[in-house]
């Protein structure tokens, strides 16, 4: 057997292991290189780490382990190893290239730009064109995202983060930023999934926990949101976003609860003021604000401010178009205001959300009220109250019929004649219905008069006039006077 000297020892009579740490480290590096070539990165990583333990000041070992970390998508560790490599060999160009690649993957543009400068100083021919383009694109979309954020254009921020992820698909920072703005847009499930994936890789990721807390907060699950924000602040006491939202959440909860208490004790003006104050806490919290608008609408209704109640219900529904209570409240207010078409529309939406027997009955009542409202108001036409007696109805008709009869307007313009004819005809209809007990009962109950035999079609206003005044003349109730001959032959167009 050959003599290898005292720098090696024999093991199992056939394996030579160097006794010198440097040679042993070099052997481990070479074995690591072989594993790296066949993509066994974790095994290669272990050998590079053993080589570093043996020779902690050798730059190439850190460079190789940095490459391994990069293949395992552990860019933070890769960046640290590349920096250690530079520490021991400031001219190691490949290490700077790895720093540049890691900086792109981590979204660290300052580090990336510094690396580009160092690479160009060391080797003008280094092929980093793709990386330089990526840095420029990241810089562009980060700037556009910041501008969009100032304008509250959250969709544009999400778009910019997607473009950044095109260049740096593993960057956790871009992913979490995207998730945060998805939460602002109300896309909570997508935001939660991104945050959960980040936490699967790192349970201590304070930003991911913050995003989960944001989603809970915007879904009006305040107690769970509090727990998340508290956890964030334990991990990162200076996390400003978590602290700001935590304060808003506590203020919102307290003010809303104070408003509820004021309402329960019938202090409605105070409740109104507290709900208004709560609405100003966080305009982005759509779900909580929808409930606050509904609560304030309820207060407005109790204060007999029906139109204002409708406005608050509408504001609530703009934030949550499936808010059943707000739809029911607004429909009820529309009924109170006599705006039956709007009430019917709201009750139809209610039935689509929840077709209960009670809701179907409300819709039926609203449709009936709408149909009833479209009929002519014969009491109004005659100028009497709904509880007017038979004699009051006759007296009112007699007075208006003499005023509206077309013969009194024979010398008027065509427009005036037409208007008087219409009014005279409606007056005859009104008297024909209200002077007939059966027709009046049907009219008062809201039934459609045309649905019954002898409804509206048999009422001739001229005949009504002639019959009425003939009876009145025969009874000597009053004298018609010379201007109104006993027989009229006026025909309506």
TrEMBL record:
TPR repeats lie at residues 25-58, 59-92, 206-239, 324-357. Keywords: Chaperone, Repeat, TPR repeat. Residues 377-447 form the J domain. It holds the Pfam family DnaJ. This is J domain-containing protein. The lineage of its organism: Eukaryota, Metazoa, Ecdysozoa, Arthropoda, Hexapoda.
């Amino acid at each position: 057997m050959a003599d290898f000297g005292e720098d090696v020892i024999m093991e199992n009579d056939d394996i030579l292991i160097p006794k010198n740490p440097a040679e042993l480290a070099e052997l481990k590096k070479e074995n690591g290189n072989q594993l790296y070539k066949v993509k066994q990165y974790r095994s290669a990583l272990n050998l590079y780490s053993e080589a570093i333990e043996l020779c902690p000041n050798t730059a190439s070992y850190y460079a190789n382990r940095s490459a391994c970390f990069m293949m395992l998508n552990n860019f933070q560790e890769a960046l640290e190893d590349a920096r250690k490599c530079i520490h021991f060999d400031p001219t190691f160009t490949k290490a700077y290239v790895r720093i540049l690649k890691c900086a792109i993957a981590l979204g660290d543009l300052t580090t990336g730009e510094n690396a580009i400068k160092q690479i160009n100083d060391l080797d003008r021919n280094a092929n980093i064109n793709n990386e330089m383009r990526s840095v420029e694109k990241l810089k562009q979309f980060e700037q556009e995202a910041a501008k969009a954020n100032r304008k509250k254009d959250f969709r544009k921020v999400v778009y910019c983060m997607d473009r950044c992820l095109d260049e740096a698909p593993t960057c956790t920072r871009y992913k979490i930023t995207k998730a945060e703005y998805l939460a602002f847009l109300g896309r909570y499930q997508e935001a939660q999934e991104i945050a959960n994936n980040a936490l699967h890789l790192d349970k201590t990721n304070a930003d991911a926990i913050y995003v989960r807390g944001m989603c809970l907060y915007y879904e009006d699950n305040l107690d769970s949101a509090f727990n998340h924000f508290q956890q964030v602040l334990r991990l990162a006491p200076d996390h400003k976003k978590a602290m700001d939202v935590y304060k808003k959440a506590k203020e919102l909860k307290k003010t809303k609860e104070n408003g509820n208490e004021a309402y329960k004790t019938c202090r409605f003006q105070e409740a109104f003021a507290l709900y208004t104050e709560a609405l100003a806490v966080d305009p982005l919290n759509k779900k909580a604000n929808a409930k606050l608008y509904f609560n304030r609408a309820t207060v407005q209704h109790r204060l007999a401010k029906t139109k204002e109640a409708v406005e608050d219900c509408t504001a609530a529904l703009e934030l949550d178009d499936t808010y059943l209570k707000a739809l029911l409240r607004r429909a009820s207010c529309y009924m109170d205001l006599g705006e039956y078409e709007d009430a019917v529309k709201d009750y139809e939406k209610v039935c689509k959300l929840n077709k209960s027997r009670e809701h179907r009955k409300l819709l039926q009542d609203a449709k009936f009220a709408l149909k009833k409202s479209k009929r002519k108001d014969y009491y109004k036409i005659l100028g009497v109250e709904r509880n007017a007696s038979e004699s009051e109805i006759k007296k009112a008709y007699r007075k208006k019929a003499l005023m509206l009869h077309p013969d009194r307007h024979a010398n008027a313009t065509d427009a005036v004649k037409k208007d008087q004819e219409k009014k005279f005809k409606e007056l005859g209809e009104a008297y024909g219905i209200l002077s007939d007990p059966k027709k009046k009962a049907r009219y008062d109950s809201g039934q459609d008069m045309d649905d019954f035999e002898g409804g509206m079609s048999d009422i001739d206003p001229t005949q009504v006039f002639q019959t009425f005044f003939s009876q009145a003349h025969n009874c000597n109730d009053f004298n018609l006077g010379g201007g109104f001959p006993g027989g009229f032959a006026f025909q309506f167009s």
